Amino acid sequence: GNSVTQMEGPVTLSEEAFLTINCTYTATGYPSLFWYVQYPGEGLQLLLKATKADDKGSNKGFEATYRKETTSFHLEKGSVQVSDSAVYFCALTTYGQNFVFGPGTRLSVLP
Amino acid sequence: GAGVSQTPSNKVTEKGKYVELRCDPISGHTALYWYRQSLGQGPEFLIYFQGTGAADDSGLPNDRFFAVRPEGSVSTLKIQRTERGDSAVYLCASSLAVRDTQYFGPGTRLTVL
Predict the structure, then answer these.
(1) CA B92, CA B104: separation in Å to the nearest integer?
(2) CA–CA dist A89, B87 (Å, integer)
(3) Given CB 3.0 to 4.6 Å as the disulfide criterion, which of A102, B33, B94, B112 pairs with A90?
(4) How many CA atoms, within 13 angstroms, populate the side-chain half-sphere of residue A30?
(5) Residues above pLDDT 90, as percent of chain B
(6) In chain A, which among 85-104 make CB contacts under 8 A with chain B?
(7) Quick count: other Cβ atoms within 10 Å of Cβ A26?
C-alpha cells in the first residue's frame, strides 16, 4: 500500500535560517504529492502540491520538487520566519486510492 | 466563499454513548472525506464519498463507525457505543473531485470519558 515517511521533529531553527523537511514515499501507481500545514489552533491548509515528476510546487517562499527517481518530495525554504512555526504534513494520493498523510513534523522558529 | 464547516467543535461524551458529527462541505464539491487525527499523528483516513455513495470505507476501524451523505452534500459521521480510544479530532475535507486538492474543516474534538 501507499505510505509516507517524514523526518522526525521537532525542528527548531532561528529566524532567517534555511529549512529542509524530508519526505519520502512508497506508492503503487503514479502519485500526486502534497504538503499541508497546520498552524497553532487552526485547521489543515494546503501549502503546495505537484502532480508529476520534476514538477516544483511553491507557495509563501516554500518549495518542493517531485523526484520520482528518489521517491522524495522534500520541503525547503530559504529563510524561515517566526510565523512559519507550525506542523507540516507530507501527503500523497494515487488514482482510486485515498489520501495518505505522514506523521507530521513540528517546526519552531525562534526570533 | 465559505469553507468546510464542522459541528460541534467540541464534544464530550461518556463511554457507551452514541455521537453524531456533522460536516458541511464547500458548495459544489462532489468528494467528501473523513479523517481521524490523534495527538502527534497525521490524519488517518476513515471514509470518503463520491456524491451520495461511500466510495471507500476501508478506513473505518469497526462496525461502531458509520457515515452517511444522503443528498450528496452534508455528511454525518456516527459512532455507536463510544470507547475511550475513540477520543481524537475528527476532520472532514472536501474536494471538487477525487484526487483534487482537499480543503479541510477545523475539526471536531471528541473526548470520551
Answers:
(1) 6
(2) 21
(3) A102
(4) 5
(5) 80
(6) 89, 91, 93, 95-96, 98-104
(7) 13
Residue with cell 516544483: A56
DSSP-derived secondary structure for B56-88: E-TT--STTEEEE-TTSS-EEEEE-S--GGG-E
Distance from CA of A47 to the nearest CA of B (A): 10
SS3 content of chain B, % helix, strand, coil (to 5): 5, 50, 50
Beta strands in A1-104 (DSSP E): 3-6, 11-14, 19-21, 23-26, 32-38, 44-50, 56-59, 62-65, 75-77, 86-93, 100-101
> Is the model's pLDDT at B39 over the cut of 70?
yes
Q: Do B45 and A98 touch (CB under 8 A)?
A: yes
Q: Which residue has the cell 499523528?
A: B41
